[in-house]
Design a protein that fits this description.
The protein has 533 residues and is of the alpha/beta class. The protein contains 17 helices and 19 strands. The radius of gyration is 26 Å and the shape is elongated.
């Protein structure tokens, strides 16, 4: 520069000017200085660095794939992208069906070479959908592998654009920054499994009008979780823990779980702060007869021979409450009988949400459930009597449909042309997105867009499939905030894979305190912007 300024070497001066013009360095430095003058940040060097990073041409230098230990098995994969400004990673888990075909330690040499060859060939990874499409076209690549690579690319793209990950996601979904929300934490607190360990029914808890902040609800969930664990110590030996990080109790049916949860809420003095929901897992419990009728094997005898007709009493260790007459009976319920049970438990246990109440193919039962729920709502309105024992319309933020009925994103009808048609049958008004079931981030964002267009409340959830573990990756939290989801189902308060999601939300609360908390309006936030607190 000194030589060129003195005019001693005109060619050198021209080369320098061409170089500065090629990379727009003078323009970017002017922009950085103007930004400093306007904002006057406490750390000007960091601000300049962020501005220059966002102007850097995105380039992937290297790609590395590693096996990851999850749940005592090498059933996860970590994808690491080394770009020209930083290193970014993403993690995902294989399903058990895939694990059975994996070697003890999978050799990623061939796959890593293919991915590296693709992504280091000048691909603009900030165009996430295009990158996801290219990666998915690699021969013999697995869904977990494409998802891990996609998460890493999403983080890298956000950094290169000078955005937080959740801000980048909001931009891809089409939300303004003021439409993002901090989701309400929906935690699993107790569960039961079937004799074949394929069925997994759970009780979840939801915040009420007393929810002041994410930290406030999380504190109450921790209190409840601690109470459940200490109250059950010594009852039936060491507690099992489900895939979603909550205690698995030895009870024969959902009614037994509800009694345990209700007692725990009352004894922990949280009955007014948290309301219950049920994950029925009916899709896995359903069996279809040759004639097309569905039967549901949701109940079973207790596996504890010493107390076959008792359920744990959470409030007072060492005691047990007698089971209901007929509880634990063998046999299958019809779709109509299950509808009656779901509706009865809705009112009796003051439920705010039911998930997977029926098999998606049981159209007759779904129509019946929709009719029954409508009849109960109309009855309440006409009689003006609070038959649900509390103001149901205030919980969830939807006063028209008091109960949240959740369908899984895997049950959505296919939309090859991008249409926004919702489920044709049934009472569903909420959609649960399990990131682990998606091939990449773009596919997950497409589901989020469809939920909004169909008018369904959006729930972002970790895997609750007994055949699949959950990785200790906090990306799920960024997805929930960026997509405007009012509910985050990150599992129970046990295990680093679940804590990581909650911890990431806590970080976001500190990074962006202006983002409002969904709170009790957890169903309305994915459809409309809630009032700021």
């Amino acid at each position: 520069c000194r030589l060129s300024m003195e005019g001693e070497n005109l060619n050198e001066r021209k080369d320098i000017e061409d170089y500065l013009k090629l990379y727009c360095i003078e323009d970017y430095l002017d922009e950085a200085l103007n930004s400093l003058i306007l904002e006057r940040p406490k750390n000007p060097y960091k601000s300049i660095s962020q501005i220059l990073e966002s102007k850097t041409l995105p380039e992937i230098i290297d790609v590395q794939l590693y096996p990851v230990l999850v749940g005592g098995q090498l059933c996860g994969i970590r994808a690491t992208l080394i770009t020209n400004i930083a290193v970014f990673s993403g993690c995902a888990c294989y399903s058990n069906d895939t694990i059975d075909h994996l070697e003890p330690i999978k050799d990623y040499t061939v796959l890593q070479s293919a991915v590296k060859s693709l992504l280091t060939s000048g691909v603009d990874f900030t165009k996430l959908s295009k990158v996801d499409e290219l990666v998915q076209s690699i021969p013999a690549i697995n869904t977990a592998e494409t998802l891990a690579i996609s998460i890493a690319c999403c983080r890298a793209a956000a950094r290169h654009k000078g955005l937080k990950v959740y801000e980048f996601i909001a931009d891809l979904v089409g939300l303004q920054n003021n439409q993002m929300v901090i989701p309400s934490p929906i935690a699993s607190i107790v569960a039961r499994s079937g004799s074949d360990n394929k069925l997994s029914q759970e009780i979840l808890v939801f915040p009420t009008l007393r929810a002041a902040s994410f930290e406030d609800v999380l504190g109450k969930l921790l209190r409840l979780s601690h109470h459940l664990r200490t109250a059950n110590e010594g009852l039936r030996g060491p507690l099992k823990v489900s895939r979603t990080g909550c205690p698995v109790l030895d009870v024969p049916n959902v009614q037994g779980l509800l009694r345990v949860a209700k007692t725990a809420l009352a004894d922990a003095d949280l009955a007014a702060d948290l309301k219950m929901g049920v994950h029925w897992d009916s899709s896995r419990a359903a069996k279809q007869s040759p004639g097309g009728d569905f039967g549901y094997q949701l109940e079973g005898p207790s596996s504890e021979p010493a107390a076959p007709a008792a359920t744990p009493a959470v409030g007072k260790p060492g005691k047990a409450k007698p089971a209901d007459p007929g509880q634990g009976e063998q046999g299958s319920r019809s779709g109509a009988e299950l509808v009656e049970l779901v509706c009865a438990q809705w009112q009796e246990s003051e439920l705010v949400s039911v998930e997977d109440p029926l098999h998606p193919g049981d159209l007759e039962a779904l129509r019946l459930l929709k009719k029954k729920l409508h009849e109960v709502v109309q009855d309440i309105r006409l009689s003006r009597a609070d038959k649900l024992k509390y103001h149901m319309g205030g919980v969830g933020g939807d006063s028209l449909v008091p109960l949240q009925v959740v369908m899984d994103s895997s049950q959505l009808p296919r939309d090859p042309e991008g249409d926004a048609e919702g489920p044709q049958e049934g009472p569903f008004n909420a959609l649960k997105l399990r990131l682990s079931s998606c091939a990449n981030v773009s596919q997950a964002l497409h589901v989020c867009k469809r939920a909004r267009k169909m008018g369904l409340a959006l729930i972002v959830s970790c895997s609750n499939d007994p055949s699949q573990s959950e990785s200790a990756d906090g990306f799920l939290a960024d997805l929930a905030v960026g997509a405007g989801a009012g509910q985050l189902m990150a599992g129970g308060l046990c295990g680093g894979e679940h804590f990581e999601k909650y911890n990431r939300i806590l970080e976001i609360c500190q990074e962006s305190p202006s983002i409002p908390f969904a709170g009790v309006k957890f169903r309305a936030t994915s459809l409309q912007q809630p009032n700021r607190r």
